[in-house]
Amino acid sequence: MTNPPTLQPSHSSARGTLLSRSFRKAKVLFDAWLANMTAYRAELIIWMLAGAVPLIMMAVWIGKAQAGGGSVGGLDARAFAAYFLAAWLAQQSTVAWVAWELDFAIRQGNLSTKLLRPIDPFWEYIMQHVTERFVRIPLVIGLVLIGLLIAPKGTVLTPGLAAVLVFALSIGLAFLVRFLISYIIGILAFWTEQATAFDEGYYVLATFLAGGFAPLELFPTALRSFVDWTPFPYIVYYPAKILTGQLPASDIARVFAVQLGWVLGLVVLRQVMWRVGLKKYGAVGA
Amino acid sequence: MPIIEVENLQKHYTVAEKEAGLKGSLRSFFSRKTKTVKAVDGVSFALEEGEMVGFLGANGAGKTTTLKMLSGLLHPSSGRVAVAGYTPYQRRASFLKNITLVMGQKQQLMWDLPALDSFLVNAAIYEIPEARFQATLKEYSEILELDGLLSKQVRKLSLGERMKCELAAALLHQPKVLFLDEPTIGLDVNMQVRIREFVAEYNRKFEATVILTSHYMADVTALCSRIVVVDKGKVVLDGSIEKLLERATDKIVGLEFSSRVEREVLERYGQVQSLDGLNAKLLIPRAQASVLAARVLTELPVADVTIEDPPIEELIGQIFTEGKASRAAELERTQHEEVRV
Fold first, then answer.
1. Could you tell me the pTM of the whole model?
2. What interface predicted TM-score (ipTM) does this complex get?
3. Which domains can be identified in chain B, with CATH numbers?
4. Cβ distance of A116 and B73 shorter than 8 Å
5. What is the CB neighbour count within 10 angstroms for residue B70?
6. Touching check for A12 and chain B: CB below 8 Å?
């Protein structure tokens, strides 16, 4: 559709390339949300403790290993310590609460102000999460280091810098998978008043399937092969295995391929659901 | 060519009906009853570029729902809506850059940050060049007196201060079409006047088209020459304020006497609306207003006299109660000729 010449705003000849304009948007959203996040430091620590399942499970499994003559399923106390510290790091680095944000915005009608802007609210939400990571991750790393001090003697978290870098990359993709799943759950609020109930229910299951309660090699074979078809182990278990250096290179390539596949699939699903959902939007309130 | 065209626009909602209490909740859990609410039920009107129109109606009449469809937040159930050549609900970036919707009861500013931070975000999102952003900000700051407010956390601002910042934020990208939904709600009179002046100035400067809803009739009479009245999702009147006043069957004659006058004496001239010491108000049929006023002037000890139209609120109230849809339609037709002049 062409717009009439009367409305061609004299100023719409926006300067700069698409890239530089996108960069400006990203930077300004980043700055604003970082400032906003630092206002919530105290809450952040509480939220982190709420995600302490892997740490509790670490103590449980170390205890089991020590009682069971040194190892369970071939893993000794040091292996459990390294795995759960890595798993906790992965879980904390990929936290996403956008389902709650969207659910609230849709039901309260606050989505309206976001929809008026010429930018998909997706970008604002993702930036909100990314900036939060800058406050959260230093805290998490500090706690992991403390965890290493009190872990059984001889616990090695990672074989070296290369593993850390590959881990960081896989965490980036893992975050996207988790964020997109949360986003899609949030979009359900267009149809149901209980989107966050899905999120609650999904959380326990996801933590289990992701390897938050036990490393997947301890799962029965049938369950294990099922779990690999879900996105969850690619959020916590596999990144943790990459960090601790227990995944052969060929498996690492497969993990990345699967993560990418999930990201692409979820991006498409989110886009479709968003389009359809917006038609149902009631913009209640005000 | 009209900049806003609305044709037989409808928005129907299906809502679940639930009785109060646990029993009601249980019942609705097993068999959900629904009903259709016709929030907007066949609204049509058109606006020329630069027009300022007051959108009036009781709570729940469908004003806000219509504005939400015009700004692309809601998909219409049926009918046609076009704003600046765009179909609003497609929410193209170029459409969104040309409009704004200000909701007095919703805010876009980030609560925990100074308003300036939100302004910077908008400047980037709307791709406003830096120099123009600074110039616009300076200009708005002067008219709205924003000095000292922009660096304070938004949550620490008063309602009026926040509203001024909201308005500035919503207009930073200099939209050509403004939808203002209760922009002055809850504000004191001074603040209302300031916001009104700002909107008037903005309209002059940018030839912006404005649709305004307000519970304060003063907002509407000060800014708008034309009003659209909606009731139960339908347009019941569309015309100039003068046309509306012509519908008034009576004039109000205000009298100030130099000595007391009895009520019975006054009743010979017209219906006594009020009598309080030396002051009285008479309702006199429009056609005879000047003749009767002249007679009062010569026959009674009158110190001062005024002839006024009844308040617009009352006239609109009459429209609702009388439901004179046919006369309103006639008015609409004459109005369209006027607009083209």
1. 0.81
2. 0.77
3. 4-244 (3.40.50.300), 249-308 (3.30.70.980)
4. yes
5. 25
6. yes
